Structure formats: structure tokens, C-alpha cells
Amino acid sequence: MTSTSAAPVVAGPLSRLGWAIRDGWAVAGREFSQLRHHPGELVGAMIVPVIMVLLFGYVFGSAINVPGGGSYREYLMPGLFAMTAITGVIASALLISKDIAEGVMDRFRSMPMARSAIPFGRTLADLATGIITTAMMAGVGLLVGWRAHNGLAATLAGFGLILLVRFAVSWIGVTVGLSISPETANALIPILFPISALSNSFVPTDGMPAWLRFIADWNPISALVAASRQLFGNPTITPAEGSWPLQHPLTATLAWSIAILVVFIPLATWRFQRTTR
Known about the structure:
mainly alpha
């Protein structure tokens, strides 16, 4: 691989930002090229969400009634969108740890490119994958009866929020992936489901024991799911004495996302600078 840009002459903030964006886009282009040469990775990322919709929609949907009425599949879909969003953690951790193990990071560090370009390119590529898988899941959701009822603007806002969370958590994945092996990253995959399940993704939290309900209500996934249900106009259950995140899910989700980005963008960049093969 050859360098796509040289260090800028003017080292002002805007110049550095533009430099990082250009280099990050070039790194993302490498990721897209790899997907073209290994389409099985993208196909696998698309098949799993489809299976989730069909499995949970029909298996759970035939056994669970939504309190207050409404379609369980409409109640469920925002939870499945949220589950897909957090897979960005593992995807980013696995791919960047693989690049380190194969020596790709050493070649990147030898080039005159912005230090933040590698993490940014990886998260940008994961965001593109997230857009594709979310669109695929939404299409299957429409086939099984899911609908968004609050108009185009609210629907786009709902998907935008889901993708924002995916982009944010992918920075966590990059930070983790810079410190672990691909084998360890693979071993973390089973952890995703219990984290997702310990929320309001599948069932309301008000039936849980008090200590478990507290954890579920403050799980950032619960806020994302509740915000998505509100934006899509899907069945929403908000306990009268619920936690602050469930009372204000949109604000809570934005706050979680911004906090993650503020912490992990500089942390991932710093970790990349100090990573050795």
C-alpha cells in the first residue's frame, strides 16, 4: 500500500482535521476493497440479522403479548436494531486486532499519515457495514409486519440514532482490539447477547426483580430501544416510576453516544500510537 497523503504544511486544527479525514477515508477504502474480495464476511453480517428477525419475531411473537396491546413484532424490532448496533464493538475489535497480528499496523505507522486515520477508517467502514445490515433487517421487518408510524423524518431520526450508537461503540471496539489478539476478540462474541438481553429489547423491565430492573433500566441499550420505539411509533412501555434514561430515552442515548465518542476517540488514537507488534 502506498501513502495517500503527505503531512500538511500548515499544522492548524482545521488542517490536521482535514488531513485525518482524507487519510481515514483512504483506510476505509481499503476495508471496502477487502469486502469486495471477501464477500462472505458481508454476507455473514447480513444473514445473522435476518435470522434474528425471523427467529425472535415468530418464536417469541407467538408466545408474548405486549402489555397495553400492540404487535409484538413491532415492539421487538427496535430491540433487534439495537442488538445489531452493538455488534460494532466486536466487529471493530476483531478486524483491527487481526491487522495488528498480520503486521498491517506496522506498515501504516511507517507512512506519513494522521495517527487518528486508522481508527477513524476502521470505524467508518464498520458504519457502512452497519447501514447495510440495518437496511436488510428493516426490509425483513417490513415483511413480517413491522411498520414505522411517525412519518419519514422521525423514521430517519430513529435509524440515525441507531447508527450513531453503532459508530460510537465501534470506537470502543477499536480501543479494545488494539490490546487483544483476534482469538480473544472472537471469545468476546458470546458476551453480546446477555448484555443485549439484560434490557428492554425483548420484554418490559417492570417484571424483573428490583435489582435486575435497575441494571436493565440503566443499560444504554434500553435507552436506545425506548428512543427508537418512540421515533418509529412502535409499542412503548414506560413505567410511571421508571429510571431517568427510560423517562428521557432520546436525551439519554445522545448523552451516552457523545460521552463514548469523547472518551474513546482520543483513547483509541493514543492506544494506536503506542501499539507495537
